[in-house]
Write a structure and sequence with these properties.
Strand order of the largest sheet of chain B: 1-2-3-6-5
Structural class of chain A: mainly alpha
Shape of chain A: elongated
Number of helices of chain A: 4
Order of helices and strands of chain A: HHEEEHH
Structural class of chain B: alpha+beta
Number of strands of chain B: 6
Number of strands of chain A: 3
Oligomer: heterodimer
Largest interface: A-B, 28 and 22 residues
Strand order of the largest sheet of chain A: 1-3-2
Number of helices of chain B: 3
Order of helices and strands of chain B: HEHEEHEEE
Distance between the termini of chain A: 68 Å
Strand content of chain A: 5-15%
Radius of gyration of chain A: 28 Å
Shape of chain B: elongated
Distance between the termini of chain B: 49 Å
Largest sheet of chain B: 5 strands, mixed, barrel
Strand content of chain B: 35-45%
Helix content of chain A: 40-55%
Radius of gyration of chain B: 17 Å
């Protein structure tokens, strides 16, 4: 029944239909495979060069600071941002904030992009996390604190809470950006 | 007379400039340091009320205004810890001021 191409005319009707059907299935499978690979294959943006990485990250993170400062209603603060190397940060930290409540000034230090050994997008995501994390600390800075609330244990609990809040805000923001629910402000 | 006054004025300015100094080092609990006579285990904390700085192998106490500035600097700060690294209890600081008999009259303090 299964004969070479060119001998179709010699096939009986059932054999010919089977042969034609198998060709259609094969062609469809190939087409479908190609189509799905085009649609599903994730687009990996090219990694910027080491030199561009710093400039791009600097620009990105300053834009993000301005955006989150507005969102968190911290416009009355003058906040500066310093990209820092580990020697300028406390050991075992990725960034910090120092503020002056009376002058309403603050300085955020964020670990420089060149110090991250990660892909560019993961790097700027983490730098943005530091900015949001420190701005939440600033948001809480106006709250009255007693001696106990300034203890190491209490600070550690606050740190965990601030991490969870920053993570939630960023997850929501990134989800909304992906689905287009809310335009970035 | 005028020359003498000018020289005195210049001298005062120069000596004033010469006395203003900066110290960078570990911020310590001065009371703890007084008892233990060593920096180990005497890191400044939020409970510290009397501060000192160990810089260049020397220990200096901060004056009253310096203690208030150090307390405020420790209060008005937050660090984002790296989850993969242990955080150091050490507090490094840069103190600007003038020193007399082992005590620094603090003009400004910056906590790392």
């Amino acid at each position: 029944m299964w004969q070479r191409a060119g001998q179709h005319d010699k096939l009986n009707p059932v054999g010919y239909r089977f042969f034609a059907l198998s060709r259609i299935i094969l062609a469809s499978s190939l087409l479908f495979g190609t189509f799905t690979s085009i649609c599903v294959a994730p687009e990996t943006p090219p990694e910027p060069s080491a030199r561009d990485r710093g400039v791009l990250a600097d620009h990105y993170i300053r834009e993000k600071l301005s955006l989150w400062q507005k969102r968190l209603k911290l416009d009355d603060w003058t906040i500066s941002l310093v990209l820092s190397h580990p020697g300028d940060l406390r050991r075992g930290t990725l960034g910090n904030i120092r503020w002056d409540l009376d002058k309403k000034t603050a300085r955020i230090r964020v670990l420089d992009a060149s110090e991250y050994h990660r892909p560019y997008l993961a790097t700027v995501d983490d730098m943005e996390f530091t900015v949001v994390h420190e701005l939440i600390h600033l948001e809480l800075s106006s709250m009255t604190r007693n001696e106990e609330s300034r203890s190491a244990e209490s600070r550690s609990a606050e740190e965990d809470a601030v991490n969870r809040m920053a993570d939630s805000l960023l997850q929501l923001d990134r989800k909304n950006l992906r689905t287009g629910d809310i335009a970035p402000r | 007379m005028r020359r003498t006054l000018s020289l005195l004025a210049v001298g005062a300015v120069v000596s004033g400039l010469a006395l203003a100094e900066s110290w960078t080092g570990k911020l310590l609990d001065a009371s703890c340091y007084d008892q233990q006579k060593k920096a180990a285990g005497c890191d400044a904390t939020s409970k510290t009320t009397a501060f000192g700085i160990e810089a260049g192998g020397q220990f200096y106490k901060l004056d009253r205004s310096g203690n208030a500035k150090a307390t405020a600097a420790l209060k008005n700060r937050a660090d984002r810890a790296d989850p993969n690294k242990p955080q150091s209890p050490e507090v490094m600081a840069k103190v600007d001021g003038t020193e007399k008999s082992g005590t620094i009259t603090v003009e400004n303090i910056e906590v790392q």
